[in-house]
From TrEMBL:
Its main location: cytoplasm. It comes from Oceanobacillus caeni. Gene3D superfamilies: Enolpyruvate transferase domain. It holds the Pfam family EPSP_synthase. Belongs to the EPSP synthase family. MurA subfamily. The active site is at residue 119. The keyword Cell cycle applies. The gene is murA. It catalyses: phosphoenolpyruvate + UDP-N-acetyl-alpha-D-glucosamine = UDP-N-acetyl-3-O-(1-carboxyvinyl)-alpha-D-glucosamine + phosphate. This is UDP-N-acetylglucosamine 1-carboxyvinyltransferase. Coiled coil: none annotated.
Length: 443
């Protein structure tokens, strides 16, 4: 079994570079399906398990996908005749597989994708995606574990109001509307930077879309789209994770390629907590409090530009070190507190009250064996391990690998005492022997 083992107590210093954004590259690769001619070359592609999965989804549909992980590029040629199905084996691994629905429906008038189930952070339905397609004239059929969308001829432009600004629904509806007959006006849509990145790519492919990054997006349908070259924006959540790593260890880290404008809510909370954040030419410099004293604060997760739910668990790790009472309220997902139990195993003092977690800090964190419950929980447990007494062992790394490129290696390059190991689960090791072995390996 693979584990990450962290020995707490090391300050982080130096420079680290963030990769292209997972949540931008997945819709961009899905959108490449729409191009009936030409080739797309996508650069700044992070080498993540999710990128391998979306590439497989496309290959399974007869798209030529050529991923060069050494160059961080993906070349995509979707000009073949494609099949229009995404089976459960992919959707189960990665919910973002549902993002092929919009592009396939736009290009072929048909798409069949396994229904995504719930996941560790909530039930995550796709009703808003489907309502949008229906408003454009598609017939939706849900049965036998699949959702199938069909339209005779082209979709029709429509006025669509989203009940909530869902990121995935905004992306799927924009992609479907790109080839619709007429204009689609999408209101109350998501404003995340990843939406803007997707729209920039679609416009390079020949689409006519305005308003991305605002509440209303206007899509004038065109007859066809072609391949285009595009560079993925930096990952604001990976950047935010390193910001917390610097802050929690009282270090001084330059996070290259971090985009300050995408991180305003995170920067503002860190500053409230007594962390210094400086904008530099190459990125963001984050310096932990000189007196070592982090201040308690409250956060409420919200759609962009509010505080991102994908940074909630990392901030929770930081709040555990802050003096006083901090409150985190999760409003985006119904059940994104699974990591609280794992933090408690590390001696964290906190309680859940409805959609909020109340944290009494600072907690004297102790190393323990903990399991990642989702991707950001994995990162948060590693962050807590950086300041815990003794060794923290984090398992279930499949979650981490979906969204972070070599997080352990990058933290080690900044001075963390951290290692990824492959341990045989059949060998039972006494705690003291285990510790001796680790001391030999890490010190
Ligand atoms: C690949 C990707 O980009 N993933 C991000 C995307 O996920 P994703 O696109 O799945 O998130 P959404 O914005 O759609 O979900 C937000 C909320 O809306 C609800 N909802 C959504 C769609 C729908 O049809 N009906 C419905 O009720 C969801 O259950 C959730 O409670 O945005 C989330 C919110 O910022 C992030 O945490 C994810 O990292
Ligand atoms: C929840 C996340 O991703 P996904 O929507 O791909 O599950 C995330 O990136 O934290």
């Amino acid at each position: 079994m693979e584990k990450i083992i962290v020995r707490g107590g090391h300050q982080l210093n130096g420079t680290v570079r963030v990769e292209g954004a997972k949540n931008a590259v997945l819709p961009v690769i899905a959108a490449s399906l729409i191009a009936s001619e030409g080739k797309s070359i996508i650069t700044e592609v992070p080498v993540l398990a999710d990128v391998y999965t979306i590439n497989e989804v496309l290959r399974n549909m007869n798209v030529n996908v050529n991923f060069d992980p050494d160059k961080n590029t993906v070349e995509i040629d979707a000009s073949n005749d494609l099949t229009t199905e995404a089976p459960f084996e992919y959707v189960r691994k990665m919910r973002a597989s549902v993002l092929v629905l919009g592009p396939l429906l736009a290009r072929y008038g048909h798409a069949k994708v396994a229904m995504p189930g719930g996941c560790a952070i909530g039930s995550r339905p796709i009703d808003l995606h489907l309502k949008g397609f229906e408003a454009m004239g598609a017939e939706i059929h849900v049965g036998n574990g699949f959702v199938e969308a069909k339209v005779d001829g082209r979709l029709k432009g429509a006025k669509i109001y989203l009940d909530m600004p869902s990121v995935g629904a905004t992306e799927n509806i924009i992609m479907a509307a790109a080839l619709a007959d007429g204009t689609t006006i999408l209101e109350n849509c998501a404003k995340e930077p990843e939406i803007v990145d997707l729209v920039n790519y679609l416009n390079k492919m020949g689409a006519k879309i305005v308003g991305a990054g605002t509440e209303t997006i206007r899509i004038t349908g065109v007859e066809k789209l072609h391949g285009a070259n595009h560079s993925i924006i930096p990952d604001r959540i990976e950047a935010g994770t390193f910001m917390v790593a610097a802050a929690i260890t009282g270090g001084n880290v330059l996070i290259e390629n971090a985009e300050a404008d995408h991180l305003r809510s995170v920067i503002s909370k860190l500053e409230e907590m007594n962390v210094t954040v400086k904008e530099e030419n190459r990125g963001l410099r984050v310096i932990g409090p000189k007196d070592g004293k982090l201040k308690a604060t409250d956060i409420k997760t919200l759609p962009y530009p509010g505080f991102p739910t994908d940074m909630q668990s990392q901030l929770m790790a930081l709040m555990l070190q802050a003096k006083g009472t901090s409150v985190i309220t999760e409003t985006v997902f119904e059940n994104r507190f699974m990591h609280v139990e794992e933090f408690r195993r590390m001696n964290a003092k906190m309680k859940i009250e409805g959609r909020s977690v109340i944290i009494e800090g600072p907690s004297e964190l102790q190393g323990a064996e903990v399991a990642a419950t989702d991707l950001r929980a994995a990162a948060a447990l590693i962050l807590a391990g950086l300041v815990s007494e003794g060794y923290t062992r984090i398992t279930e790394l499949k979650h981490l690998d979906r969204g972070y490129v070599d997080l352990a290696g990058k933290l080690a390059s900044l001075g963390a005492n951290i290692e990824r190991v492959n341990e045989d689960p059949n060998v039972l090791i006494q705690a003291d022997q285990d510790n001796k072995r680790m001391i030999a390996r890490l010190s």
